[in-house]
Amino acid sequence: MKQLSVKPKNYDAMSAYRASKLANLLFAYELHRRLEKCGISPTQVLSVACHPGVTESNLLPNLASTYNSVIIKAIIGFVHWLPWAQSNAQGALNILCCATDPNVVGGEFIGPHGLSEFYGWPRTVASSKQSISLDKARQLWEESERLTGIKFSVKD
């Protein structure tokens, strides 16, 4: 769970962003497992995760502004400038695919198919080894229940 905690005195925008994305994946995969365990049909509830790739949003420019290093700012600016930064509409297709494509299966991770998943049409993509850790997913789930005071249960 240390990877998911960002201490204020050691705050780094990119580390916090990565931790939030890891938590999203862990949570989505754990929800999928719990729904299956409860016998919930994917036609009733589907838990999937997705990412847009690199888009023309303000995320990268705003992220660059949090760094003092001219080199890091230049690298982030360069990545955002290259032709693989697709439109926001193209990036949104991955979310729409998760929400509407009847071929999407619970527990999948949808992202763009292009170079390093920076751009392209939606498809199932692999996620990191950390994101498929059953132990980390369970810990995150239990900590989420503890912090919210809400226990997950499925009722008919």
Automatic annotation (TrEMBL):
Single GO term (MF): oxidoreductase activity
* Keyword Oxidoreductase annotated: yes
Query: What superkingdom heads the lineage?
Result: Eukaryota
- The entry's keywords: Oxidoreductase
Which InterPro entries does the record associate with it? NAD(P)-bd_dom_sf
Family annotation (PANTHER family): PHOSPHATIDYLINOSITOL-GLYCAN BIOSYNTHESIS CLASS F PROTEIN (PTHR43157:SF31), PHOSPHATIDYLINOSITOL-GLYCAN BIOSYNTHESIS CLASS F PROTEIN-RELATED (PTHR43157)
Protein name, as recorded: Putative caZy families GH18 protein
* Organism for this UniProt entry: Phytophthora infestans
